[in-house]
Amino acid sequence: MSTDERERTSEQTTRKTAAELFDPLLRAVLGDSPPVRFEFWDGSSAGPRDGSDSVKVKSPNALRRLMWSPGELGLGRAYVAGDLDVEGDVFSVLRTLQGAASDDAHLGIGAAVSALGVARRLGALGLPPSPPPEEARPHGRRHSKRRDADAISHHYDVGNEFYRLFLGPSLTYSCARFTGDDTSLEAAQSAKHELISRKLGLGERPGMRLLDIGCGWGSMALHAATRHGAEVVGVTISAEQAAAARERVAEAGLSDRVEIRLQDYRDLAGETFDAVSSIGMFEHVGKARTAEYFSVVRSLLGPHGRLLNHAISSVGGSVMGRKSFIARYVFPDGELLDVGEVVLAMERAGFEVRDVESLREHYARTLRCWVANLEANWDRAVALVGPARARIWRLYMAASALGFEDGGIAVHQVLGVVPDSSGGADMPATRGDWE
Questions:
Q1: 351-374: per-residue pLDDT in tens?
Q2: Which of 98, 150, 129, 81 is CA-nearest to residue 390?
Q3: Helix 61-68 / helix 109-122 crossing angle, nearest 10 deg
Q4: What is the pLDDT of residue 7?
Q5: 360-376 and 160-167 are packed helices; what angle lies between their axes, rounded to 10 degrees?
Q6: pLDDT at 109
Q7: What are residue 105's phi and psi, to 5 degrees?
Q8: Where, residue-wise, is CATH 3.40.50.150 in the chain?
Q9: CA–CA separation, 129 vs 44, rounded Å?
């Protein structure tokens, strides 16, 4: 090809809109007709023109990130950096794209070739853009105390006021329990705490001692002390959570009954409790540490002592791989166990498992409430933590809600009891006593 011909080809390419250049890639990944509208930085668009839902491709850097980190991590980086955005109903957009990118069409060799061609035409084949600074890269031995502390700090020590924006007044960062169609988020969180309290038998005897592992901002501790007269020790390894929880305890006038510690559960020894609650903390333990975890808890309970382990689960278990969006930006080193493995591990530690309950649909609804709160307070959230971190939370919570809705992930409460030599456990005859 002569120099003049190359110049004419280059000129013709530059006349093409971004939508025209992306068309082969969109077809390779999503089929002949994109199910949602894609709007590009030059004002061009592809896909349906009706409706308000759209994916905004704001920069060629979005494609460059995908070229260097194909799949979930590249897309996540582009979204966090602001090279990609979602407008409209984020749940609808994610669900539609998830359905369109079927096993027959998603990011195969055809898509890779198309992406390479588009990148070349856009001049997006340069060096990879730096990952957003919000990305976590933990160091040290996995699930060591120091590394776990760093991982927890990455997620939880981003500002208590930010969490308050989307969690609401209950400041509870775990699955709620909705008892009716019109149940508010705050009431649903209280209902969850009450269910756990009843399963643990709190209030059956005066002065019962409760250990709340991973106590967060102290909501379960406050509920147990206020409603059931329990003496509570709450432990967390998040400095910001501990500070806020102590403030809430003092404001409630419960400092004589509730103690909040900045402490790893592995450092608990020589104490005895009547009950242990672990709500949304077990996902940070890791499969390799599971036996140790339940052994520690068992050592803290006497005969008839009860453990309520409330945790996200997945069939067969799953490790949040280092190339996944959620591991890099949300929960470094997070792991989900199969509920069957949890039951077996509890039994091996000496517990008799007395109840297993799934709250999967409740978690989907909880997450939708959180996303709605975040979006309603978006400007304030951005002012508190910056646009990148606000986008991280929006994406991870919306995607998680869809995972709970379609059954890809679940959440289970598993109740274990320490039996005595006679086999007694002082359990109610039916679940009705917990309602």
A1: 999 999 999 999 999 999 999 999
A2: 81
A3: 140
A4: 44
A5: 110
A6: 52
A7: -120, -20
A8: 145-434
A9: 24
Q: For residue 392, which of 66, 35, 90 has the smallest C-alpha distance?
A: 90
In tens, the pLDDT along 50-75 reads 878 999 999 888 888 887 887 788 88
Maximum average pLDDT range among 142-156, 300-314, 413-427: 300-314
Helix (H, G, I), strand (E, B) or coil at 313: strand
pLDDT, tens digit, for every residue of 385-432? Answer: 999 999 999 999 999 999 999 999 999 999 999 988 776 667 787 887
Tokens of 423: 């086999």
Contact 235, 213 (CB under 8 A): yes
Q: Euclidean distance between the first and final Cα of the chain, in Å? A: 79
Show the tokens assigned to 125: 């084949």
pLDDT score of 351: 96
Residue 273's nearest CA partner among 296, 250, 252 is 296
Please name the residue that has the structure tokens 């898509």. Answer: 111
Backbone angles phi, psi at 355, to 5 degrees: -160, 140
Compute CA 260 distance to the chain's CA centroid, rounded to the nearest angstrom: 24
The residues pairing with 209 across neighbouring beta strands, listed in sequence order, are 231
CATH number of 145-434: 3.40.50.150
Is residue 303 within 8 A of residue 334, CB to CB? The reply is: no
In the sheet that holds 45-46, the strands lie side by side as 45-46, 37-40, 54-57, 84-87
Rounded to the nearest angstrom, the gap between the alpha carbon of residue 276 and the centroid of all alpha carbons in its chain is: 23
- Residue among 361, 381, 205, 363 nearest 280 (CA): 363
Q: Are strands 335-336 and 273-279 parallel, antiparallel or unpaired?
A: unpaired
Could you tell me which of 415, 235, 401, 434 has the C-alpha nearest to residue 342? 415
Beta carbons of 278 and 213 less than 8 angstroms apart: yes
Q: State residue 302 phi and psi, 5-degree precision.
A: -90, -175
